[in-house]
Amino acid sequence: MNSSSSENSNKGLTSAPETSHQIGGFRGAKQRLTSFDGGETAQTQLFAPDRYRFFDDIADTSHRIARGSGLSYSAASFTENGSTICHQSFDRILDFDSTTGEVEVEPGITLWVLFQFLVERGYYLPCHPGHGAITIGGCIAADVHGKNHVRDGNFNAQIVSLDLFHPAHGNIHLSPHENLSLFELTCGGFGLTGHILKARLKPEPIASNTVERSNRRFDNFSDTLDGLRDVQKNSDFSYSWHDMSRPGIGFGAGYVHSGNIIAQADIAPKYQGKFSPSATSLQRRLPANGVINHLTTPALNYAYQTKQWMASRKPHISLQDAVFPLHGSESYFALYGVRGFHEVQMLIPLEHVQTIVDFLEKYVKDNKLVIGLASGKEFDGTQRLLRYSGKGYNLALNLPRTKTSEKSLADLDRLLIACGGRSNLIKDSRISRATAEAFYPEIEEFRETLTEFDSKRLFRSLLSKRIAL
């Protein structure tokens, strides 16, 4: 998920009893916020404005950062001893062109609200992450990817233009054709260039709200990866799931999930689940270390495979179920307990994928490393600045937050660097400055360009501080 969780939901934040300063008549509330993975925490002055006049009076010199729904894994949306500005009240659809499908929205609108609006008009965004509570502003700041990177690329490919506000520069219009350097710095820039006020997006037309899907099982990692490569170029959705709980011949066995939107008049029922960020907040997690361990993970994976086998009997699902596979599965995160978990999302050159898999299998065998989730998709893009893109296999792992996990991931970082891969900075609150610099050779260019634009470096977060952006 994208855009850090708090110990409280974003709603009612201004009701906190202890306050300090005001901006434009809006009172800030002292709040202790924690990243969604449980790895970082800080006390901040949290503002939840609902009027644009707030930005007219924000020209003070204190550090600040924008915040969406509060669902990013690393602490990208809050800062210590500064101002955290929640954008959730800026959630309107400002314009829609029925001829082209272009839509203009405020940054606090969630993917789910925008999805419903677009689907009713015969459109959808092909590239976005798997939960509807994430905001458009968060998607831009992280430059997220969707269910088929080979075909759809990153979120920035859907952006027609942005309006950005910075106290030192005022309102700036950005696009691939106007202020390109700042546009590239903003897309995947973790909110460090300023406040996104609105975004114009280019959805794609769809023939229906129904997807014909396929769940194919494979007996080992190599076959699963081959199966994914066979379907991805001709699929609207394609990704893999792997069982990495038991070393041996079948390590990494799994499913390839793929699907295509079909042309038919029948519209599948709308999903009626809950999409409040509080459904995945730290408040909802089990105490202590949770229940994800080397004894329970094989059973949980078996249950997942049984569910997929049963689901394969139903060839059609609604588009929203294909776009938002995490809906209805929010309780998964609670299983890791309040100590939290590590998410590692790494892009591995294809010729080195088996090397990484062999490393993971050895750690599972020798150290009882627990991999609660392993999922992947192939990438075929161009890496620029800090954007998580390029060519290779994107493998995402969830691990409980333990000493074994910490050591294994440090070793994995070194191996990934040696293989020429990189890790997704927005997904991992563990990555240090040195490791980030090894993963992203253009990080110094990012720093220099950002400083040229904002010499005072007003926008900062725990993430930017940790890797010295």
Notable features of this structure?
14 helices, five-stranded mixed sheet, 26% helix, 469 residues, single chain, disordered N terminus, globular, alpha+beta, eight-stranded antiparallel sheet
Q: How would you characterize this protein structure?
A:
26% of the residues lie in helices and 24% in strands. By secondary structure, it is an alpha+beta fold. The chain has an eight-stranded antiparallel sheet with strand order 16-13-15-14-18-19-17-20, sandwiched between helices. A five-stranded mixed sheet has the order 1-2-3-5-4, with no helix packed on it. It has a five-stranded antiparallel sheet with strand order 6-7-11-9-10, with helices on one face. The longest helix is centred in the last third of the chain and has 16 residues, at 403-418. The model is unreliable at 1-19 and 274-282 (pLDDT under 50).
Give a quick precis of the structure.
The protein is an alpha+beta fold and 469 residues long.
